[in-house]
Amino acid sequence: MNLASLALRNLRRRPVRSSLSILGIGLAVGSALALMSLSHSIKDSTRAGLDEMGDDLVVMQKGASDIFGGFIAEDTVASVTAVPGVARASGELFMFAPSGPDRNMLTQGWADDSYLWKKVPLRAGRVPVAGERGVAVLGEGAATALGKKLGDDVAVLAATFRVIGIANYTALINRGLILMPLSDLQKVSLRPNQVTVIHVNVVRGDAGGNLEQVKTAIEALGNLTASTANEVLNKDRNFAILDAVSLAIALIAVAMGAIYVLNALVMATQERTREIGIFAAIGWSRPRIMASILVEGILLCLIGCALGLALSFAAATAFPHIPAIGDLVSFSPSATLIAATLAAAFVLCVLGALFPAWRAIRMLPAEALRRI
Amino acid sequence: MNTKLELANPQSAAPLIALRGVSRVHDGGAITALNNIDLEIRSGDCVAIVGASGSGKSSLLNLMCGIDYPTAGTVSWNGQPVRRHAEWARLRRTSIGVVFQEFNLIPTLTAIENVELALLGRGLSAARRLARASIVLDRVGLEPRLHNRVTTLSGGERQRVAIARALANEPQLLLADEPTGSLDSTNAALVADQLFRLRANPNMTIVLITHDEALAARCARQVRVKDGGIIEDSGATVVTPAVASWRAP
Question: Based on the domain organization, do A177 and A140 belong to the same domain?
Fold first, then answer.
C-alpha cells in the first residue's frame, strides 16, 4: 500500500461522488480545450488560407479593425501594382454572404484579370472567363455543405449563380469559399467599385525591393496598411476578441474543474476527519497527511483530464457536422495547447486540493478522533 | 529548541515520560480537564491510570502521546521537553504506540493493511512492511485474519489489530485507553492477556487507562485521577516543581 493506492481506494469508496467529480473535471477540461482549440483553429485556418493564396502582403484600409472591415477604392489596385517592387496585385471583395435561409458563406470576388483565378486548384469544371457573369466556383467544403455540384445554382445574397467549378484548396477556410467575379459580388452586395483587401506579390530576387520598402511605398499611397499574413491576424480585432473571450471562458471552465475537486475533497476530508485523526495518532506527519489528500486530488484531476481529452477529441469528430462552423474550422489542438490546458487544470486542481488538506492538518489529532 | 529526542535508556536518570505542572483547559478555561498534573513514568513501568468517566484520564493519555497539547506545563520525553507537532509525530511513529477504546481502525482496509499504515513513512519496502505487519498480527493471534477487512472482525479481534498496529514500530511506550472498554468479558480477558504478555519485554513501558479495578490491579503501579487531578499514586516518584508554562503550538 502507498499513498496512491490509498487515495484510489478512497475514491472507489464513494463511486458516485468520485465519478461526478471526474465527469465535472472532464467536461471543464474538454470545454476549455475545445474553446481554445476553436479559437486557434479559426486563426490558423485563416493564416493557412492567406498562405495558400500565396500573398506576400495584404493591403487593407488604414485603421480597419479586421479583414472584413475596410474598404478600398477598386482603382487603388492599379496604384499598388505600380509601386516599385510589386510583381502583381489583385483586389478582392471579401465577406460573409448569406446563401439560402440558414447559411452564411465566405464569399470572395476577384477581378476578371486577377492572377488569383489562375492559381485556383480546380478539382472539376473551370474558372470564369473574362466578362462571364452570374457564375461561381465553390470550394469543395462549400460544395459539400451546400449540396451543390457543377451546373447547380447557388444563392448568394439576393442573386443566383451557376456553379462552374469546384476548387480543391487544402486550407479549411479556402475549402469553404464561394468565388465569383468581382463585379458580380460588388453588384449584389451594393458595393460598387470597392474591394476589401488587395493581395500583393513582390518581385523576387535581386530585382525585387525589400519587403519593408514595398510596404512603406504602398502605405505612402495614403489610407492603406500593408501587412504580412501574420501581421494581419495579429492586428485583427476580431481575433483579439476571440482569443480573449475563449481564454476567459476556458479559464472559467478549468476553474470550475478545480471547484469540483475542492468540493469533492472538502466533503471527503470532512467525512474522514476521524480517519485523518487516526493517521496522526499512528505517527503520520502533517506533510504525509497533506500529501495523502493532495494525491487524492491529483488522481481525480488526472482521471478527469484524461476524460476531458477523450471528450474533446470525441467532440472533434462532431465539429465538421455543425452547420455554422463545420466548414470553416477544424478541431486540431496542438501538443502545446493540450499541454498548457492540462497544466492549467492540474495547477488549479492541486490548488483546489490544498485547502481541504490544509484544513485537515490544522486540527489536533485528539479533536479529529472525537469526530463521528 | 529541541529538535532531536534521545532514545530512552533504562539506565538513564530521566524518566521515559514526565508531565510537569500540566493543565488542559477547554473553551477558554470554562472546562478544566487536567489541573497542574505532575507525573513521571520510567522505562519498564506498568502503570494503570484509574478514574471514573470524565475524571481526566483520557485527557492525560492524549497529552502523553502528543495528540493533544497542554494549555500549561511541560511534557518531556526522556528528559527533553517535547513541544512541536513534528516531534510528537516522530515519537508516535517510532517510540509510542497507542491503543484506543474505539479501536480507531480504517474500516475499508484489511487487518494487515491497517497495521501496514503505521509503517508507512519509515523507509521500509512494501515487502518488509507487510512482513513486519504479518509478524505482529501473528503475535496477537490474528495470523488467519490478515486479509480480512476489519469490519468483518469481532470486537476482540479488532482490538487485537489495534494492538498489533501499536506494536508495529516496536515502541518503548504503549498507551492503552480503556482497551477492553468496548468488549465483552471473554474478549476483554483475551485482550488484557495480550497486553500483559508484552510485559515479558522488560523495556516495554505500559500505561493503561481504565476504570476497571481488576485490570488496574494487574499493573505494578496505580495512579488515581479525579476531577482533573491526581489523588493517589501508588508508586509516586519524587516530582520536581513545574517548569515555566508554555502555550500549545
Answer: yes
Count Cβ–Cβ pairs < 8 Å, chain A vs chain B: 73
> Would you identify the CATH topology of the domain B45-55+91-233?
Rossmann fold (3.40.50)
Query: Confidence class of residue A158 from pLDDT cuts 50, 70 and 90?
Result: confident
**How many angstroms separate the Cα of A84 from the Cα of each of A57, A207, A211, A340, B7?**
14, 10, 11, 45, 91
Closest CA to A87 of A208, A254, A179, A2: A208
Q: Whole-prediction pTM value?
A: 0.68
Q: Which domain holds residue A12?
A: 3-46+239-370
Enumerate the residues of chain A whose CB falls inside 8 A of the CB of residue B126.
Answer: 1-2
Query: pLDDT tens digit string along B97-149?
Result: 999 888 889 988 999 999 999 998 788 899 999 999 999 999 888 888 899 99
Residue A52 lies in a domain: no
Among candidates A10, A281, A286 on the partner chain, residue whose Cβ is nearest the Cβ of B98: A281
Q: For strand B72-77 and strand B229-233, is the pairing parallel, antiparallel, or unpaired?
A: unpaired
- Nearest CB to A282; choose among B62, B86, B165: B165
ipTM: 0.84
CA distance, residue A32 to nearest chain B CA (Å): 36
Query: Residues with Cβ < 8 Å from B39, sequence gap 6 or more?
Result: B18, B19, B22, B60, B223, B230, B233, B239
DSSP labels, A197-212: EEEEEEPPSTTSPPHH
Cβ separation A277–B117 shorter than 8 A:
no
